[in-house]
Specification:
By secondary structure, the chain is an alpha+beta fold. It is a multi-pass membrane protein.
């Protein structure tokens, strides 16, 4: 059996599929495959549609009908809260009915827009109910209970299609595979009931307590039926209004089939699959293609978008007033339920979810505000409003307001990112733009609906202004490209909609109507280009050409003296001496009992080693430093973290990647005697016989010696650039701080040197730091130099000598290791061409050290490969 399995896995295609499965790439590949199919099908179906005629149909809709269908849609969405009332009763949640309804609205509307197999709704319910004190185990049981119930109502409606309560045969004949989908959905309900009544499987549905009561089952199925029935009636009502030739039963039947197709696609809200099947079904029933597409657009707006906007507002109001970390939310595993759509949309991560959710909602409201302004400017206004506005204002003022609205719309789209990041400066500008946008969109055509929406978003931001605490955020090339591309995209959409709709729209107007109100194609092009340039010029002036907001200053001589006194009093670690290079910032906690050295790399603050100071204060210091970084939208990571502090990092939400191991030689047991130390003993004896000498020079150093060492260093570098951050470099003031080991030839010429680095642990540990030698030194020079330095350290009373790191040593050894660690293991084994990983390990092993691991501590939200590249860049450059 095993041999057959191995032979099967030998095929590359099978290995590839196994890899895809193990890497969980199906989470991305399945939605992408469905999306590709939908785009291909949509491209075929939408070729014959006329955007202008569709907009014309939408503009003709009666205001009374819009109000009626809007209210009915809200009732249909509100009916989905029946699920939450069922689980509230069954699991005995101590939650008020009003709070239950609010949580249900947020969860259901977000799930409608972003839902991926129900993960969004399940995750949000978990977060919201847990916030209200419901135990996590009970919530999990409720979510598990709810998941299989949701589609039972659609299964009932599928039986209605099978028994011909509503006609669906044309669309089934056009796509035969829908027969299987219809029957599969119809059989789901009896299968659900059979499994629920089975003692073996009932525990899955009722948290291990056996079968559900018939009253609970009936209520659950009733809630599901109510959801799908009201959604279908909403669609059917819109269809019967716009498609007068179709009976409401036919439109309802098309909805049922399209809903099944959308559910199978797993796309958020059934986007694509639902729309294509519904569009095809309506046309097969004889509907005009443009009106059929108008039905879909109105349904999406009233059943999905408007309720979701209300959900955004409720989510914004649900924000936690303070910005504390909700570390317990990690238990829910929410981060793993996110799908590709949600990550692209910038969905909040698992930590501080509820606090982030509210600001995320505000950011998306601002984004939608910009889109509303652009869409309003691109589509033809109502003629009677335009005529009335012309009586009040001149046409040039209306045209100018139109152009300003476009500029403001583009800026709001870009600023929405700053709102999501809680930047105070972005909040102030956004409030001004929303107020201005409301004024100008009203002036250009009396579009009071858009103006009221913008004013409402401004009010929400004003109410939430205390939550915008960030001073600034990184403006890196990546963000500029993304938001520059997005602004270009929305501007292009404005031009395409405006230029493609206004000219055909005018054909529907009476011949006597004056066309001065409407712009031609070239006007839209000029407005689009001019607005895009002006918007970016303004944003550049506002954000880039402002006083530089620095996160700190590099330490001067006075602060370095303060650091030295602190280390002598509190103690340091193996990398503390490198802080005197002056290239790391020093973050002192408020009580100055802990100091954290760090450097900035893009949007990361990279701490070198562990925080310095009393270990009892380190946990609080890390949290304070995280808050400091968060004020600038930066992330704190810890480089070369020691095992002693891992539990503290873990408590603060960090993951770990093993960087390698540090070689620590116990000096008490160090000796050159014995067979295993023969190579070191022979090298020492040979250099002694040939007249080489070893000397330790204490600071201060003579200027002539400094120049001699500088000459050796320059020859050793051979034009290469000095590295920095975690590595020392040749700096005169730095060399004057600690002893230097010199190796001289028989003529007294210095051929190699090494600087010492105390660990500031009261004379217990010393490290070797900068090592340089001339290129023509004999073999074994480094063996001799290290041996003599270790002997000196032992004679000087030190207990431990630090030989430094062996990068990637003993990383990824276990089969259960992370994928990144296994990759690092391959680099260690086969990357000798670029860096002598194994050779360095073998060299340090000669001195019989004890190996102590070093780690990279990073938050779960950080993408490790990118962080690795940033660290490589940080170490490769030197700050003077």
């Amino acid at each position: 059996m095993n041999s057959n399995r191995k032979s099967i896995q030998s095929f590359k295609i099978v290995q590839f599929m196994i890899t895809i499965y193990r890497q969980r790439m199906t989470r991305i590949l399945l939605p992408l495959a469905v999306l590709a199919f939908i785009i291909w099908e949509a491209g075929r179906e939408l070729k014959g549609f006329n955007l202008a005629r569709i907009l014309h149909e939408l503009r003709r809709m009666d205001a009374t009908f819009l109000i009626e269908i809007g209210l009915f849609s809200l009732v249909a969405v509100a009916a989905m809260s029946a699920y939450d009332y069922v689980i509230r009763h069954h699991f005995k949640f101590q939650i008020k009915p009003g709070v239950t309804f609010r949580y249900a609205w947020i969860s259901n509307t977000f799930n409608n827009v972003f839902g991926f197999a129900g993960f969004t709704g399940a995750g949000l319910r978990t977060m919201l109910y847990k916030k209200n004190g419901v135990p996590l185990g009970v919530i999990t049981s409720a979510v598990v209970f709810l998941s299989p119930v949701v589609i039972t109502g659609l299964s009932l409606l599928a039986w209605g299609a099978i028994v011909h309560l509503y006609p669906v045969q044309p669309v089934l004949d056009a796509h035969p595979w829908l027969h299987w989908a219809l029957w599969g959905m119809a059989l789901y309900l009896p299968l659900f009931l059979i499994l629920q009544r089975s003692k073996r499987y009932a525990k899955w549905f009722n948290k291990g307590e056996g079968r559900l009561s018939w009253s609970t089952i009936s209520a659950s199925i009733g809630a599901s039926l109510l959801e799908w029935l009201l959604a279908g009636l909403t669609f059917a009502w819109i269809g019967s209004y716009l498609l007068h030739e179709l009976p409401i039963s036919a439109v309802f039947g098309i909805y049922v089939i399209a809903a099944i197709a959308g559910l199978i696609s797993l796309a958020p809200g059934g986007v694509g699959a639902f729309d294509i099947i519904a569009l095809l079904g309506l046309q097969l029933e004889g509907a005009n293609p443009d009106r059929a597409l108008a039905v879909l657009l109105v349904f999406r707006v009233f059943y999905f978008i408007i309720p979701w906007l209300i959900g955004l507002v409720l989510a914004a109001l649900e924000m936690i007033p303070r910005n504390e970390r909700l570390s317990q939310l990690a238990e829910t595993g929410w981060d793993y339920s996110l799908n590709a759509w949600q990550k692209v949309w910038g969905w909040p991560g698992q930590f501080r979810f509820l606090a982030d959710l509210g600001v995320w909602a505000l950011g998306k409201l601002v984004l939608i505000s910009g889109a509303v302004l652009l869409l309003s400017a691109a589509t033809p206004g109502l003629l009677y409003r335009l005529r009335f506005a012309e009586h009040l204002l001149s046409l040039p003022v209306m045209r100018l307001s139109h152009e300003i609205s476009v500029i403001i719309g583009i800026m709001l789209v870009v600023l929405s990112h700053g709102i999501s990041l809680r930047i105070r400066r972005a909040l102030r500008l956004t409030l001004i733009l929303l107020l201005a946008g409301a004024i100008f969109t009203f002036i250009k055509g009396l579009d009071f609906e858009e103006a009221l929406f913008l004013l409402f978003v401004a009010l929400m931001l004003w109410i939430s202004r205390s939550r915008f605490y960030r001073v600034s955020a990184p403006l890196n090339r990546h963000n500029i490209l993304i938001w520059g591309g997005l602004s270009l995209l929305v501007t292009g959409a404005y031009f395409m909609i405006g230029a493609g709709s206004n000219t055909p729209f005018m054909r529907h107007l009476h011949a006597k109507v004056h066309l001065d109100f409407f712009m031609n194609r070239s006007d839209y092009g000029v407005t689009a280009v001019f607005s895009l340039i002006l918007a970016w010029v303004f944003l550049t002036v506002y954000f880039f050409l402002r006083p530089q907001r620095v996160i700190g200053n590099l330490p001067d001589a006075r602060e370095l003296d303060k650091l030295k006194e602190f280390l002598e009093r509190q103690g340091g670690n193996l990398v503390s001496h490198m802080l005197f290079l002056g290239d790391k910032y020093l973050y002192w906690t408020k009580d100055e009992q802990v100091v954290i050295p760090y450097a900035r790399s893009r949007d990361k603050l990279v701490v070198l080693g562990d925080p310095l100071g009393s270990k009892e204060r380190v946990n609080e210091a890390i949290q304070e430093f995280q808050r400091f970084a968060d004020r600038y939208a930066l992330t704190a990571v810890f480089y070369q973290a020691s095992p002693e502090y891992l539990s503290i990092y873990h408590e603060n939400g960090y993951r770990f990647f093993k960087l390698g191991e540090e070689a620590l030689v116990p000096l008490e047991s160090f000796t050159l005697t014995g067979k295993s130390n023969q190579a070191l003993r022979s090298a020492k004896n040979r250099f002694d016989r040939e007249g080489y000498s070893f000397e330790i020079i204490q600071p201060p150093l003579e200027p002539s010696l400094i120049e001699e060492l500088r000459h050796i260093s320059n020859i050793w570098l051979d034009g290469r650039k000095e590295k920095g951050y975690s590595l020392g470099w040749f700096k005169e003031s730095y060399l004057q701080l600690a002893p230097i080991a010199l190796l001289k030839d028989s003529e007294g010429k210095v051929i190699a040197f090494a600087t010492m680095a105390p660990a500031y642990d009261h004379g217990q540990t010393v490290s070797i730091d900068l090592m340089r030698h001339l290129p023509d030194t004999p073999n074994g020079t480094m063996d001799y130099l290290f041996t003599r330095v270790i002997e000196w350290a032992k004679e000087s009373g030190y207990m431990t000598f630090n030989l430094g790191m062996a990068p990637l040593s003993q990383v990824g050894q276990s089969e259960k290791a992370l994928r990144e660690e296994k990759l690092a293991r391959l680099v260690f084994q086969y990357g000798g061409h670029f860096y002598g990983f194994q050779g360095l390990r073998r060299f340090k092993d000669k001195f019989k050290p004890q190996w102590e691991p070093r780690y990279l501590a990073y938050p779960a939200s950080v993408f490790l490969p990118i962080l690795t590249l940033e660290l490589v860049y940080l170490v490769s450059k030197r700050s003077d």
